[in-house]
Every structure is written in C-alpha cells, then in structure tokens.
Amino acid sequence: MPGSVNIGGLSSGIDWQTTVDQLMAVEKRQVTLLQNSQAQETLKQNAIQQLNDSMLTLRSTAQSLADASRFFPYQTSLTSSGSAPADSLMQVTLSGNNLTSAKHSIVIQQIAASQRNASSAAISNGAGTAINSTTEALNLSGSFQLNGTTITIAATDSLQNIIANINASDAGVTASSMKVAGADYRLVLEDQNTGATGFSITGADLSGSLSGLQLAGGGNQLQAGQDASLLIDGLTISRGSNTISDALDGITLNLTQADPANTLTLDISIDASGIRSKVQNFVDQYNEITRFINDQFVFNPDTGESGPLAGEAMLTSIQSALAGKILQSIPGLASDRNSLTMIGVELDENGQLFINDARFDPWLNTDPAAIRDVFAATGSSSNPELTFLNYGFNNPSGNFDIYISQPATAASINGSTDLSVGLSGNDTLTLTDQQGRKAIINLTAGQSLSSIVSTINSELSATYTEQWTTNTALTVGGSPITSATKFSDLAASISAGDTISITGTNRQGATVSGSFKIIDPASDSIADLLNAIQFTYGQQVTASIDAAGHILVTDNSQGDSSLTFSIMANNEGGGSLDFGATANVTEGRFPMAIQASANGNALAIASTNIGASSTFTINQSADLLGMANTTVTGQNVTGTINGESAIGSGNLLIGNSGTSDGMSIMYSGTATGAVGSVTVNMGIGATYDGLIDLLANPFTGLLQNSLTASQDIYDSLQAKIDNLNIALEKERERLTQSFVHMESLVSQFNATGQWLTQQINQFSNNRN
What we know:
By secondary structure, the protein is an alpha+beta fold. The chain has eleven helices and 41 strands. It has six domains: about 1-75 and about 275-375 and about 685-768; about 75-110 and about 230-270, no CATH class; about 115-225, Alpha-Beta Plaits (2-Layer Sandwich); about 380-410 and about 635-680, no CATH class; about 410-460 and about 590-630, no CATH class; about 465-585, Immunoglobulin-like (Sandwich), CATH 2.60.40. About 30% of the residues lie in helices and about 30% in strands. The chain has an eight-stranded antiparallel beta sheet. A hairpin with a 2-residue loop joins strand 13 and strand 14. The longest helix has about 70 residues, at about 700-765.
C-alpha cells in the first residue's frame, strides 16, 4: 500500500527481488542487442563521414588540376646587374592568374614617396605665446580642410586633441607632433598614401583664428609626394604606389629602393617541382581512399569481423567508379599523351597510383602542357564568336552543338531628331539605370550634337558623394554660425540639459541613432554637435557648417550610398532651437554604364553592358531629341547546348540540364540558329570534380544518402529500445506487485497459523 516498505522474502523466505532482477535481465537482452546494432550504425556513420571527407579533399585537388588557367605553378628569379642585391631593391609576388613564362628587364628610377608637411614655426596659443606642452589648451577655434575633410578645432583642444581628431578622421593623413626646441612644438602631417598627388591644407581660418597652428599656405613642406618611376622592358611606368600590380599580368612588384644604374632581370618560369607536387597530392589522396575502401573488406580473425562498411553496396559502386575513371583516355588528345598512364601516372598490382619517373619526368621537363591536358578541362570552338568558359559537373568529353535563338543585346535607343543645326530649345534629360543611379543632364538651345554627346558622357562618367543638409540656417546677430559658435549665442533660449536627436541610415543602409546633450550652453559649441553627428555615423561622415549656417553632412566615401540624415532639437527647457527639415543635396553614385554617341545627325544612347541588366529609363522635360520617354531593355542570349535547355545571362549561355548542365559558353555574335559547336576535353581532374560531386555532395551525394539511411536505422532502433524499456518497466512493476501480494498472503497465513497454534496450546493447557 502507499507508503509501505516491502522487504523481499521477509514473510515467505524467498529472495523474490533477486528473482525479479534475474527475470528482467533475460528480458533486457533484447535491448542490449538493439544497442549493439546502434553501435554498429555509429561505426558505419563515422566510417562514411571519414570517406566523405577524404573524397572532398580529393575533389578540391581535382578542381585545381581541372582549371587550365591555374594548373601551372610559377617561380621567379630576380638578378641584379649591379652591386646592390636584387632583393634589396624589389620583391616579386605572383597571384597565379594569367601568368606565362617570360623574362623582363626592370630599372627602378625612383620610388614613390608620401608628402610631409609641418607647422612653419612654433605653434602658439590664442594669446600668441609658444606652447610649452602638447596637452595644454590652445584657446584656438575654427576649422580647416585637410585633403577635403573638415577638421574642427575647439578652444579647449590641445595639440594632442587636434592630432587625435585628425587621425580619427577620413582625411587619409597621419598627424604627429615634433619638439624642435624647448618651446617649439610643430604639427607634422604625412600622407597615408604615396604618390605625387599628395594632400591639401586649406581654409581661411588658418590665416585667422587658427594662425597659431602655423599652417597658413600649407605650412612648411618637408617632403613632396612623388610617384614611383621605373623602366619595364624599356617602357616608362609611373605609379603612385611602390606596390605595382597592374603593369605585368599576375605579378606584383614591391619597390623598396631606387637604383637607376642597376638593371634587374626578372625571370618567370614554370615550377616543375610544383607540378610534381600537385600531381603527387592527387596520387596520395586517391591512394588514401582506395586503401580505406580495401581495408573495409579485410577480415579480422581476432574479432571475426570486417570493416563497418564491408556489407555496403555503395562502397563497391564507389570503388568501381573511381577505378573506372582513373584509366580513361581523354578524347581529343594525341594517343601518346591521352591518359594518366601515358604521362607516367600508373597503377601498381594493388590498384595504387604511383608516379613512374622514367615516363613522367620527360613530359615534365620538355612538355608540361601534356600533363596539364590530361588533368584539365579544355575547350575549342568552330566559331571564333563562341568561347568555352567552364565545364559542368557531369559534362562528358565531346562536341556540343550551339543553337542561338536570341543573341545578347545592349539596351539602346536612337533619336529621330536631326541635330545638325543644333538643339531647338532647352531640354533636361534624365537617365536612370537598373540600380537606381540617376544622371540629370541640362541641355541648352543651340547646342551642337558633338557638344550634347560630350555633356551627356561627362555627366554619366562622374562620381558623386552623398550630401545632406538642414533647411534652416542658424545665425548669430544676423551672421551665419560657425563651428566655434557657442549654443548660448543662439537666440533660441537653450537650457542646460537640452538634447538634440540624430537619426538616419549609414551608407550601407543600416539604421543609426544618437543624442547630443548640451551640458553648458556657454561652453558647448556647434563643433561639439558636429563631432556627435560624426560619432553617431561611426565616423563614416563629415559634419560641417556651410557658408549660410546650415549643417552639412557629407559621406566620407564616394559613390553609391544609402545615407540619410535627420536632426531635431527636443527643447526640453522650452527653447526654440530648430534645424528645420533635412534634404538630400547630392545623391552619391558611381559612373553609370551608359554612353551617348552620334548616329548620323541624331543622338544615340546605349548601355555599355550587355543583356537584361543593361536596362535604363529615359525621361525628358521636352522631347527635343526624338526619344520618347521610355524604358529601354537589353536582351540576354537564349538558346540551347546540344539540344538541351540553357539559361542566358548577358552573353553567357549556361547549360541547366542533361550532359551540358553547368557548362558555360560565351557568344559574342549576332547571328541566330546553329552557330557552331564547342569541343570539350574533360581531363581527369575535371572528370573527378563531377564524379565526386555525385558521390560526396553534402545534400544529394551517394555518401550523404547512406548517412541519412544509417541515421534512420539508428533512430528506428532507438524507438524500439524506448518502447522495450517502457514495457520492461511495466513488467518489473507487475512482477513486483505479484510478489508483494504473495508476501502479504504468506504473512496473513503465518499470522493465522500462529493464532491457531496459540489456541491449540491454550486448549491443551486448560485440559491439563
């Protein structure tokens, strides 16, 4: 009964609890067998995952071998004709793209240097006294432009504060201080970039309220910026940086020292040891997989078992697929170099690959392209307007016929108005591209066709920086405020504790918000508010005051921008500070891929891109160009590859079904119909890329399917174990209750027996 304690055998003398445990142990053997089966599934899953990882490693190597443009590793040697070691003048790095074997002569005439300016005399404070430390307040206030970025200085700023503000700005200039003598401190400014362009230091305050900085007229130039100048194969090359990556394809030159009397010889050659290493990696990874598979079938006499995957049919399929592809011949290659065996990569008696040096080295040393062609995917075309770009996962070698139903076109429009006598009136032309960039071009009456073309193209090629402004100008005594203006000077009854809310989005479109609190209107200045705006935007903008007293917020980066800006005075103290609404002054954008040209005596406008993405919209204030307001759309190429469907993207035709799935072809022609064919040779690397995708794709691969099936079995076994455990617990409870009931009956019988014995004994005693 509830709360009672049952001690097995207390009444009956039977250890029934041990009996129950023994009975349950027999029943639990089924659970143990199921758990053993689960353990086998876990071993199987671990083995499948290990095989899958090895396959993906092999695939990565196969992909690097399949790309003909990246197949060859290159090495460089740099020698000097003079006494200075070559590596003391220049270092060379290779990007691995578009490289070819070549030899270049290089003479470094001049290395690039950064501009450095400094204060022309000792920095003095507002009283005209030379400062004695970099931490004392200068009592100077105002602003100046450093490389186009406004630097605002408050009266409380020290030289250290000014240096910190410059270094935190986006001026691209590094500031520091130099102590020339006891009370002679200078501000030193150095361009963060090298090159002749340098930086500018401008602003009327430098000759007025900020004259103590001694930067009027730019200060004292310690070093002019200069471009690097060098001769490459007799041609003069000038760059603003000492890192030059655009002169020679795939090569970056890092200049460290000039030596006009010294000629450097740069020799770029194929790295034979690098090729061997890449092929050896493929061999080793293939062998690792085949050994792993073979080990699964080995019987262990000690355990009486084989590997956890020995009974898996998919293992035999993988083994056959890998071995079958490794010995294939590559169509389109000469018979003496059309397989791994022919270039010296062979199979031994155990099915392991090895490099036969006697056959491999001659190809490596005299014709490494033969090794590349056995591994890489290569393509050729019967039509120069067709170019094979890339293979798909399962493309076979062979010829692929290309049918074009619609060639790619660029969005374009031709005007119908004869402009040979000039534009008949004023017209505002607005062009908007698919990304939302907008160009507004004002054309004037009498403008010639060539001038119209030039005006349009000038606007289309321009880069703009996003700017926002407040609509209400703030003034003090009728004059526009400056950054040095104190809040107490404004006729707006500003109180200590008043706050100003700053909201908007940064150039990436992320929401920003901040608040500026006026602690003391008599000491807090507009410069403090400008700094708060910049802080709110993570220093991605420059906040300044324009000539009329408006707040101007300028994106620190040029080009497309999602910047927005809003500011509101909360006037908690009952004041009347009002910045007004904010408005976009300049929409930031990069150049637009649209171009105007003359089409006879009329105007033509066309996208410089090809395909549906070249779409643009044209609007005019007056239709004086013979172009109705409309949206002009380009066309993607459409067609088929080997009769199979394909997707067009610009002038790229990409197969999306059958044997051409994933293959990409570029068509630059205008004809339609059967335009030719592309011959594709799928080397071993390309073949294995596709094969391993079928086997080890993380979503659809054969190994992933096996993992999923094994997990399903494991889960099913777990469900059976859970159900058995529930049933066993119920059986234990039933047996326990039965024995408890038996103990209760025995206890009652014993009690009755004892009573009867007592009665008999008493009766006997009474008779005696």
